[in-house]
Amino acid sequence: MTTDIAKTKAAAGLATLASLRTGLAQVVAQIPASIGGQSFLRLLKDGNWVVGADDTPIASGTQAVINIESVLSGYSCWTNRQPGQGKNENLGDEMWAIGSAVPPVHTMPEHHDPRTQELCKWKPQMACDIKLLEGTLSGQQVMYKVTSVGGVRALTAVIQAAMAQLDAGSEYVYPIIELSSDSYQHASYGRTYVPMLEIVGWMNADGEEGDADDGAPVAADKKIAPAPEPAPEPEAAPAGRRRRV
């Protein structure tokens, strides 16, 4: 009898793992976790979103879905050149996947600016894969990599909201966001733009959107933004369940 119970538990465990594997495979098929060869999503200094080396514009308010399984964290090392010293260069990126232990920043190797010989500091960096859901680039996979304080804060807030979905036992754990920007007046640099990643819905591994009736907490009632002053709350997204193609 004991052996039969053990076999039953083992079979149930394998079935659960198989189901999880199927779900993860669906995610990978729709929102690949691989970052190789992807274009980068960036917020320019003028507050506009663009994709790729040719700076293809992305309209403000464009919706996209974040693959939370692709989140990376670590550090980036850039030069800090002053006006007249030339364009800044990236001297190194060190990134780790979810679940990996990120070492303390002081253990990172030292880099010096090849022009000025100045010691360059490592700064926290985050990255994730995003699938655009609207516009001329709808369906395209892009990578969002940020080192700015505003960008790290915005992406961290989105991840924390996804963790809350997981804690609530919801299957809708992939945040659908709207891309926009806000700005503030910096004492030294003047008008400075920061990313706005407003959560407007949630998606499951099958690409279906959920609402409160599906058991997914409604999270479209606040903006995920690093702006110095709070922004007005947006209207909640219409209820319903649909599948993005």
Number of strands: 12
Supply the helix-strand structural class: alpha+beta
The end-to-end distance, rounded to whole angstroms, is 49 Å
Task: Name the helix and strand elements from N-terminus to C-terminus, one letter apiece.
Answer: HEEEEEEEEEHEEE
How would you describe the overall organization of this protein?
By secondary structure, the protein is of the alpha+beta class. It has 2 domains: about 1-30; about 35-215, no CATH class. It is built from 2 helices and 12 strands. The chain has helices at about 1-30, 150-165, and strands spanning about 40-45, 50, 55-60, 60-80, 90-95, 110, 120, 120-130, 140-145, 175-185, 190-205, 210. Strands 1, 2, 3, 4, 5, 8, 9, 10, 11 and 12 form a 10-stranded mixed β-sheet that branches. Strand 2 (about 50) and strand 3 form a beta hairpin. The longest helix is centred in the first third of the chain and has 29 residues, at about 1-30. It is globular and about 55 Å long. Residues about 25-35 and about 210-240 have low confidence and may be disordered.
From the structure above, extract its key features.
ten-stranded mixed β-sheet, globular, alpha+beta, 20% helix, 12 strands, 245 residues, 2 helices
